[in-house]
Amino acid sequence: MLTKKILFGNFKGGVGKTTNSVMTAYELAKKGYKTLVCDLDPQSNSTQLLRRTYGLQHNSELKIDKTMMVAIQEEKLPDAIVEIMNNLYLLPSYKDFVSYPDFLEMKFMPNVPNYKEKRMSYFGTLLSEVDNKFDYIIFDVPPTLSIFTDTALYDTDYVIIVLQTQQRSLDGAEAFWEYLQEFYNNHTAIDFDIAGILPVLLKNNSGIDNQIIKDARETFGKDMIFENIMHHMERLKRYDRKGISEKGLTSVNDFHDIRLHALYGKLTEEIIARTGGK
């Protein structure tokens, strides 16, 4: 199986992008797929969630000897990868990653031929050392137009647009969709597909939520909308604070965990199907 790279994105923040990317990576790992989460957001939300998950499962603090930014500067990106649990790995972000754009500007000055392309492709070049070691690589990026997002887009195979059922999120999804088309048309070296639009409900059985999904189907096409719609669940807030828990792995679990993992298990199966897996 060739490595598949997936980016979760939207130009609106706070839509569940990080939560869904990490939960998908977690479920992929549970299904036996060796999975790497690349946290390309200087805010480090994916890193914090997975560090808490490691602490919850191992009752100890995750040791990070080298930040991703240092590994990039040393051109030894694999050195920064840490294991969270069986089949689940992390390239952790840290506050020093905010200097990545400046690093690229210094390394590829405007007098360097194709310097813009080289800036965007540099991370993927370093990451290629571990491509054949993982079944899936998940990119988490900031909700902004930035070199962080472009870096992931340049290297990814599939994009999933996360759509929280509110108007601003729909506007952000539409803007992101348009940017993806423009980015694809302007760079001949890339080749990614949009795997679909993933709706995340703000409230269950809400009229406005249903209307936003209806509008999304009309805007993007019915086939582009995921069949598995993620409902608002309070347990996810607990995961953000305490780490991901699950029956059999920690002593902190109940029917809420069981139900939540069952839902994300189904979503992950659909993601596998939409990205050409079995």
From TrEMBL:
CDD domains: ParAB_family (cd02042)
Domain AAA: 4-186
Superkingdom, natural source: Bacteria
InterPro entries: AAA_dom, DNA_Partitioning_ATPase, P-loop_NTPase
Protein name stated in the entry: AAA domain-containing protein
